[in-house]
Amino acid sequence: MSGPHKANELLINSDNQPLVSIIIPIWNAADLIIETLASIFNQTYTSYEVIMIDDGSADNLTEVLKPYLEKIIYIYQENKGPSAARNIGLAKARGKYIQFLDADDLINSQKLIKQVDYLEKHNRFDLVYSDVLHFTTDLTVAKKHYSYSYQGDVLPYIVQLHYPAIHAALFKKSIIEKVGGFDDYSGGAEDWDLWLKLGLAKAYFGYLAGNFAYCRVSSRPNRRTGDMIGVYKSSLKVFQRYINIFNHEDKKRLHIKKTLCFLYLRLSVAALLKNDDLWKISLKEALKVPSWYICYLVSLFLFVMTAVLPAIIVRKLMKAILFCMPGIKLKNI
Predict the structure, then answer these.
(1) What is this structure's pTM?
(2) Average of pLDDT values for 5-17?
(3) Is CATH 3.90.550.10 the right assignment for the domain spanning 9-216?
(4) Cα separation, 69 vs 147, whole angstroms
(5) Distance CA 310, CA 282 (A)
(6) Residue 235 three-state SS
(7) Is 131 in contact with 215 (CB distance < 8 Å)?
(8) How many CB atoms lie within 10 A of CB 292?
(9) What are the residue ranges of CATH 3.90.550.10 in the chain?
(10) Percent of the chain having pLDDT more than 90?
(11) Cβ–Cβ under 8 Å, residues 328 and 322
(12) DSSP state of 20
């Protein structure tokens, strides 16, 4: 199964509903993809196509997908990462709207019909996003991880890492094409990179209240986001690129130093908890960023403690700080 398979044309209604292209990059998630597909096939909105890009999976994915090949467009590529996979999906997409969905996440049965209706009625918006619930295996105990409701000039929020989960949004294909899709260089920070590009392009964000997306929280080692050291290194690489794009006034307005310091602190803590010596270098870099924000104070405190305490004690101390101070708690560590 190395080539694309054409989706069943019955999935594309003849009632003039705009088509939604659902793009799913997948890598070694054969055990989860059936649940993800079920959340799509249960949509009350039926004018959609499913484009699945197999990013070089080594599990039994092809076997698992056999019963669904008449309902999806399946494309195989050698492992190149989710950005390249999503771009292939974008190139194949025929829809007016784009729904990105990772292979281990789910969407509510009302998501497409609600968000398509919103964008059709509010044409000035380039995308609409809603709230996200986090779950492990049971959706009945899913918990809200965050709730954003900003509109208008969203760039200050995105720079501060306050952006929606990628599958919480429904995008006009035209705005994704305008910003050039995903950049392959971004590593584990491809979502943030896309949001930053959308913010810089002054994309108009709409918000629709409702828990229409579910994000699976997993500690399995083969999940791409499990390597948080790699994710934060990629985030710093992405952000350093944008720092060179922002003008002087933007840097002041967007609190660039705060984000830069916070990213180095995140990387330092992630490395420290993994007993990786990279934490020392990252901590020093955080201290080079002059700032009065709490992340800088935590960095300074941690730096002083490392001079007088063994590393194992510092790790335990940092865990305690993160537990007691949810305002600076680092996600996914």
Answers:
(1) 0.84
(2) 52
(3) yes
(4) 36
(5) 18
(6) helix
(7) no
(8) 8
(9) 9-216
(10) 53
(11) yes
(12) E
